[in-house]
């Protein structure tokens, strides 16, 4: 088993960041390490214990280049939208500076996606079609496992970034990889060793700004 970083649970949870610019694009990632991370991911909760998730690990340069091409097309549209991280502004200079850094790192990842050693797509068996209305029950059986994968990767000196922009071309990527129509993709995780492991907690809003107790009224009111 791969040697783990000396992180206690709280350190692991609060320092697992979306890593983009600090992904080491030159260092190979052994498939066995990815398998270790996925074994951890399979311990995540899943509705009715269905375990209907699937994991597509892509290392072939041609396939990565094709996926990166679709991602770049989607990212270009995102970059010109109001949702782009660099377009979001707040009444807080420090938070605005953070948004600028996030946008720069997102730009970097989009430009270098094909060079990332491993791409991992988390998917789940759906059936004939996605359920109507709130789909939390469905995705709640996949996304916690994907986060567990990211935590396991961090513990082994690897970094990743949660991305979903590829879903604009989900059908094309499914055809490229031979993913059945009844299996839907939920997340794309570019994975590589990181340049250094000294990640820190990110600045966040205060808990009281988003905490509600017994009603929607904020606790700080």
UniProtKB/TrEMBL annotation:
Domain of life: Bacteria
Keyword check for Magnesium: no
Annotated Gene3D superfamilies: NADH Oxidase
InterPro entries the record matches: Nitroreductase (IPR029479), Nitroreductase-like (IPR000415)
Keyword DNA-binding among record annotations: no
Keywords annotated in UniProt: Oxidoreductase
TM ranges: none
Residues in Nitroreductase domain copies: 15-191
Single Gene Ontology MF annotation: oxidoreductase activity
SUPFAM superfamilies: FMN-dependent nitroreductase-like
Family: Belongs to the nitroreductase family.
Stored PANTHER family: NAD(P)H NITROREDUCTASE YDGI-RELATED, NADH DEHYDROGENASE_NAD(P)H NITROREDUCTASE XCC3605-RELATED
Identification of the protein by name: Oxidoreductase
UniProt lineage: Bacteria, Bacillati, Actinomycetota, Actinomycetes, Pseudonocardiales
């Amino acid at each position: 088993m791969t040697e783990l970083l000396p992180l206690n649970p709280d350190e692991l949870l609060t320092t697992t960041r979306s890593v983009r610019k600090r992904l080491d694009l030159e260092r190979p990632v052994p498939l066995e390490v990815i398998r270790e991370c996925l074994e951890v991911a399979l311990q995540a909760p899943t509705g009715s214990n269905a375990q209907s998730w699937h994991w597509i690990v892509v290392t072939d340069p041609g396939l990565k280049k094709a996926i990166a091409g679709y991602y770049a097309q989607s990212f270009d549209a995102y970059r010109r939208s109001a949702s782009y991280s660099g377009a979001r502004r707040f009444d807080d200079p420090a938070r605005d500076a953070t948004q600028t850094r996030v946008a720069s790192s997102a730009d970097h990842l989009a430009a270098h996606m094909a060079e990332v050693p491993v791409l991992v797509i988390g998917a789940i068996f759906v059936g004939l079609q996605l359920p109507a209305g709130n789909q939390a029950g469905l995705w709640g059986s996949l996304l916690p496992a994907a986060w567990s994968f990211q935590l396991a990767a961090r513990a082994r000196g690897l970094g990743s970034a949660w991305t979903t922009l590829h879903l604009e071309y989900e059908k094309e990527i499914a055809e490229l990889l031979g993913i059945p129509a009844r299996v839907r993709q939920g997340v794309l995780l570019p994975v590589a060793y990181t340049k250094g492991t000294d990640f820190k907690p990110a600045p966040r809003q205060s808990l009281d700004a988003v905490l509600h107790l017994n009603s929607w009224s904020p606790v700080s009111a």
